[in-house]
Automatic annotation (TrEMBL):
Example GO biological process: asparagine biosynthetic process
GO molecular function: asparagine synthase (glutamine-hydrolyzing) activity
Record flagged with keyword Coiled coil: no
Pathway listed: Amino-acid biosynthesis; L-asparagine biosynthesis; L-asparagine from L-aspartate (L-Gln route): step 1/1
The gene coding this protein: asnB_2
InterPro entries with a match to the protein in the record: Asn_synthase, ASN_synthetase/amidase, Rossmann-like_a/b/a_fold
Species, as recorded: Streptomyces nigrescens
Superkingdom of origin organism: Bacteria
Protein name: asparagine synthase (glutamine-hydrolyzing)
Length: 608
């Protein structure tokens, strides 16, 4: 089938059922196939042999797809000890790396992705049985599913706490296996989805938590080294990528190549900190990119994607896509096979400052001191504080229900509380439909973790993972695997075990990571307290490419579906009526518009 030729890496998981034979034929020709011990098809798809490992014992096979510390022999040992598929649910946190776990045990099929969603799984009904897959568009092609416009509408939401809108498939009948869950496909073809992980209580004091993070992050980097691939690493000057560079330099037995970008805006001191770190990394080869070397934001927004694997869902951060492409091409030309990025460090290591309100319930005096610190740091007014505290007085489902009732379009300038709003160019019908969607979600959703701090942390991790996951195909097109060690299961669990008020404070920058890297990263780098902010470049990109953005408003596919007022969107773009969240809302909207047009281009190409 032609649609699978453009999917990049993909894998379909089939149950040990006679119907799977027919489904496998529909997926042919596929480069790879692995069978159940019964001889029926189990895994079929397209992947690099270096990324796939498998071990077996008797009627059990266990495989990993991605970076895994377990080789075939280790997997065979695990297979020999496995009696039930649920015995495997804790492996994701015990085996360093970032991978899909796939198993068949006595005819029962089992699979899961990663807690971050960086490697996700979806499932749906295909004929007589339910099947799982690593890509929603591949499963949609197999089942004949079309676009679910309600789910597409969710992608227009300007939201900072609605977890369901982050990674939900936009194809009708295709469902997400929750990131903290696993799916079992029984020989009858019936599926069962089971929770495999709960966020740990944040009770671990700072010192032992830092030791856990040191071990987990070191193991994560080592899993990439053990892949045998040629590695490169970001060295942005930030603490996240600097830590990865020093960890990698300790165990990588080849000359290390690092990538540093120039200053993103006036006052951006990232390059200075990168230079200071590089002085303590003898023998490295540095790739240096100035922003004059990079295209502007939105430079390619009128270009069809034409990259295998980008048809699955709208590309979040569409404005940054040309920059990712340029960086990927540079790394590919240097021979990089895997590139380590610090993405996810902010979200995993720190979590959210909202933890101060949860802290009032257990340590009110400490919480008051923290609140004063955050007020000074972020210039919160007491009105801001009251609104944020009011927002968190109920668990997430009740909060979402209240927000759904009040949902409307907004001026996009409320920075003091978690946002749920529609952009000003959303149509009244779209807003009304969104209210119904959110109200329905509130009735069936759950809060992730025992408090709002845990919930916000998980939301941030999954949002970041969604962006990285959509960027992966751009790097893969240049022969480079993009990988984020901070989003490994064990790293997430280690950080979320730490007391929230000790992993993020208003007086220290990333204290948990700094403690974890003491003795590995030079003290000079650990002492950094600043963070670069790149919004001026995004605004410049909008001004430079405003004609291209206006062109996307012509014959808008979103407008044709009744979701946006294209004239209003064009007016805001061309008049530069920018509130703090306007660029973010524009990005979400143009991502969906570009995706719909790309689907049309792909369909036309396959029909020719």
């Amino acid at each position: 089938m032609k649609q699978f030729d453009r999917a990049g890496e993909w894998l379909v998981v089939l149950p040990d059922h006679v119907a799977s034979v027919v489904l496998a034929e529909k997926l042919e020709p596929a480069p790879q196939r692995v069978d159940h011990p019964s001889g029926r098809p189990w895994l079929i798809g397209s992947w690099e042999s270096a990324d796939f490992r498998i071990g077996e014992a008797g009627a059990t096979k266990i495989a990993t797809l991605g970076f895994s510390s377990a080789g075939p022999q280790r997997l065979a040992q695990i297979a020999a000890r496995t009696r039930r598929v649920t015995d495997l649910d804790s492996l994701g946190g015990k085996l360093p790396g970032c991978f899909h776990l796939l198993a068949t045990v006595d005819g029962v099929t089992h699979a899961y992705g990663t807690l971050s969603g960086l490697r996700k799984l979806v499932y749906g009904r295909a004929g007589e049985v339910t099947v799982a897959a690593t890509r929603a568009d591949v499963l949609a092609a197999l089942t004949g599913a079309g676009i679910d416009e309600e789910r597409l509408l969710l992608r227009l939401l300007v939201a900072e706490a609605v977890l369901h809108s982050v990674n939900t498939p936009v194809w009708r009948g295709v469902r997400l296996v929750d990131e903290d869950s696993s799916i079992t496909l029984h020989p009858t073809g019936r599926p069962t989805v089971t929770r495999r992980w709960n966020p740990p209580l944040d009770r671990l004091p700072r010192k032992p938590a830092a030791q856990r993070l040191r071990q987990a992050l070191g193991d994560a980097v080592q899993a990439r080294v053990d892949s045998g691939l040629k590695l490169t690493c970001d060295l942005s000057g930030g603490l996240d990528s600097t830590s990865l560079s020093f960890l990698l330099a300790r165990s990588y037995d080849q000359p290390l190549t690092t990538l540093t970008q120039g200053a993103a805006a006036p006052g951006d001191d990232d390059p200075m900190w990168a230079d200071l770190a590089a002085e303590k990394l003898p023998g490295i080869r540095r790739l240096m990119l100035t922003f004059a070397d990079l295209p502007t934001h939105y430079a390619d927004v009128l270009d069809a994607a034409k990259v295998p694997g980008t048809d699955e869902e709208p590309f979040p951060g569409i404005e940054d896509r040309p920059i990712y492409r340029r960086i990927a091409a540079l790394l590919g030309a240097e021979g990089s096979q895997a590139h380590l990025t610090g993405e996810g460090g902010d979200e995993v290591v720190q979590g959210g400052s909202a933890g101060v309100f949860d802290l009032f319930r257990t340590q009110p005096r400490v919480a008051l001191a923290y609140l004063r610190g955050y007020r000074a740091l972020y210039h919160w007014t007491w009105s801001d504080v009251a609104r944020m505290a009011f927002d968190q007085r109920h668990p997430y489902p009740a909060w979402l229900a209240a927000r759904a009732r009040r949902l409307t379009t907004h001026s996009l300038d409320d920075e003091s509380s978690p946002l749920i709003q529609m952009p000003p160019w959303a149509t009244p019908d779209a807003v009304a439909a969104m209210r119904d969607l959110l109200a329905d979600e509130a009735r069936r959703t759950r809060q992730h973790g025992h408090n709002w701090t845990a919930h916000h942390t998980i939301w941030g991790i999954r949002l970041c993972a969604g962006l990285v996951r959509r960027t992966v195909p751009l790097y893969a097109a240049e022969g480079v695997r993009l990988t984020s060690p901070y989003m490994d299961d064990a790293v997430i669990d280690a950080c979320m075990s730490a007391q929230a008020h000790e992993r993020r404070t208003p007086w220290e920058y990333k204290p948990l990571l700094a403690d974890a890297m003491r003795g590995i990263v030079p003290d000079q780098s650990l002492a950094r307290t600043t963070k670069a902010e790149g919004s001026p470049l995004e605004h410049a990109g909008i001004r430079t490419n405003v004609a291209k953005l206006a062109a996307l408003c012509e014959d808008s596919r979103l407008a044709a579906r009744g979701l946006i007022d294209a004239d209003k969107l064009r007016s805001i773009c061309t008049s530069f009526q920018m509130r703090p969240f306007t660029p973010y809302a524009m990005s979400m909207t143009f991502s969906c518009e570009r995706w719909l047009r790309d689907l049309e281009s792909t369909a036309a190409m396959e029909a020719s």
